[in-house]
Specification:
With about 375 residues, this protein is of the alpha/beta class. The relative contact order is 0.12. Strand 1, helix 1 and strand 2 form a beta-alpha-beta unit.
Length: about 375
């Protein structure tokens, strides 16, 4: 099957990473898939490093007849059977192709409200199918916007279980940042942006240090779009006098080593998150997880069974959860073991792709 993914985002994050992994999987399993993205974008540079098959095209605005024509010509030349889009801009650019008869699958990976009924038009009438990362997205589309539930498939994200499988060298990343084997290390991994809650974690750090001054923290990721978002987090750390307690490691490809180094992984998201890849990776790495009650997280984490669940934006609750894992290593180990078991049963990347491919093949028969 020949599939064209269209990604107009200039920033790099979990969604864009998963998209590249999907395309690479398809090309490795007898299908043909391409990613259309903006030249000079973070998506282009990171996707190139991953070896993803790329088509560069200026995706400037939602309504661009010339761009839509170029996409249509590519589809005709390469016998594209299915288009996949992720954002409003991608979707509108591909809308003329959908009305010309090429099936269009719209992914929905965030829980933010769509907005007006006018914006909901493309979900109701401008695509063949919607693939939602979490059931909360489907409920919102159906209840708030009247989208036909039969049109929505819920397929959560997944990971390469072998890539993150424990045990791994716990000290490799620790040595790099100067943390010894006996120090408690709490990690936050993901793009840096306001809704990810890194600033809430920084607020929680002093409460943890009051009782466990030997603890250390690491924030792994970079600011999306505007690098100043990372600078804002750095400034908050400096203002709080925590520069020697909280490390910022920037973007890393070696996330399996990062997870292995952490005693606890924190997901502090405030909103937007639907099906966080970090939760899947942390579970697959056998790490205890503290996460906020957003997206599909409460469908996965059962409090004190396979993780700790807190309300978003509550820095004191976050600090208390971190201290609970530090002070109760048996609980942390119990949650980590159950999380790993859950990952093995539910987060296989191959199984996710087979599920998506079944949906795609049904659409691509036109």
């Amino acid at each position: 099957m020949n599939i064209l993914y269209v990604e107009s985002s200039r920033s790099w994050g979990g969604q864009e990473y998963r998209t590249c992994l999907e395309i690479n999987w398809l090309n490795a399993h007898g299908h043909q898939a391409w990613l259309v993205c903006n030249p000079g974008s973070q998506v282009h540079s990171k996707a190139s490093e991953l070896g993803t098959r790329l088509v560069t095209m200026a995706l400037r605005s939602r309504v661009d007849p010339l761009c839509s024509l170029r996409l249509w010509r590519f589809c005709r030349r390469n016998h594209i059977k299915l288009l996949k889009t992720y954002s409003s801009k991608d979707h509108w650019l591909c809308l003329p192709l959908y009305f010309c008869g090429i099936p269009l699958s719209r992914a929905r990976c965030i829980t933010d409200p769509i907005g007006s009924q006018g914006r909901a038009f493309v979900f109701k009438h401008g695509c063949s199918q919607i693939v939602a990362d979490a059931s909360v997205i489907k409920r919102h589309l159906v209840q708030e916007h009247g989208v036909d539930p039969a049109k929505i498939e819920v397929i959560g994200s997944a990971v390469d279980l072998e890539k993150f499988k424990p045990p791994r060298d716990r000290m490799k990343f620790r040595r790099e940042i100067g943390v010894d084997a006996d120090t408690t290390l709490v990690g936050n991994i993901g793009m840096i942006r306001p809704d990810k809650g890194q600033l809430v974690l920084v607020e929680a750090v002093p409460f943890v240090l009051e009782k466990r001054p030997d603890s250390r923290f690491v924030i792994v990721g970079q600011g999306t779009g505007q690098l100043k978002r990372g600078i804002n987090v750095r400034n908050a750390i400096d203002r709080a006098g925590l520069a020697d307690k909280v490390f910022m490691a920037g973007y890393r490809w070696d996330t399996p080593d990062v997870y292995a180094a952490c005693d606890t992984v924190v997901i502090a998201s405030l909103r937007t998150e639907a099906s966080p890849i970090v939760l899947r990776e942390a579970f697959a790495s056998g790490r205890p997880v503290i996460a906020t009650n957003v997206g599909d997280i409460p469908e996965i984490i059962k409090h004190r069974q396979n993780g700790l669940l807190i309300e978003p934006g509550d820095s004191k609750a976050l600090a208390a959860a971190i201290l609970e894992f530090i002070c109760d290593p048996k609980l942390a180990a119990h949650c980590a073991a159950n999380g790993l078991r859950y990952a093995i049963e539910h987060f296989s990347f191959d199984q996710m792709m087979k599920a998506k491919l079944r949906v795609d093949l049904a659409l691509g028969r036109y």
